Amino acid sequence: MLSLAVSGEQAVLKRERGGVEQSIGTFPASVGNPIVMYFMETALRDMAKQAGGSPFYIRNRIKEALLDKAERESVTVRYGKDDITAERATIRPFVTDEARGDMGGFAGLVLAVTVSDEVPGEYLSLVASAPAAEGTEAEGYRTAITLQAPGGATQ
Fold first, then answer.
1. Mean pLDDT per segment of 10 residues, for the chain of length 155 residues?
2. Can you tell me the distance from the alpha carbon of 155 to that of 136, in angstroms, rounded to the nearest whole number?
3. DSSP β-bridge partners for residue 72
4. What's the Rg (C-alpha) of the chain?
5. Largest Cα–Cα distance of the chain, in whole Å?
6. Helix H or strand E segment including 10
7. What angle do CA 35, 37, 43 make, to 5 degrees?
8. Dihedral over Cα of 22, 28, 31, 32: its sign
């Protein structure tokens, strides 16, 4: 579980895993949502570690993809006990990358963000997924952060 607290001009991000709380970091609140930054950095570090690529190269390709036109779709999602309207934006940062052949399944990486004005902070979920590399029996990759409604019910 991730938690975010804002103290003055700083945002403090913590993670709880197995009953143990750990500080992830303190970020200037003015530079963007720390949970989104944590999610993106986690996905790119995982990719660099598993595919053997440079995190700098991966980060730059993701940044470029964010500046391009994302696929957008209106979706209905469950938030708590209600169905709400949201928008999902999806990018595929390596679809035309010249280094695709060296990326294994990560060449097919998909990053999807679901947002809605009807939830605090607007973000509902952040998902990174990639299929397994062709010709392997390995599983693909998936990491996600999903906002929980008050009371713990998820979307």
1. 78 83 77 79 89 87 87 94 94 92 90 93 92 79 87 54
2. 33
3. 89
4. 17
5. 52
6. strand 10-17
7. 100
8. positive
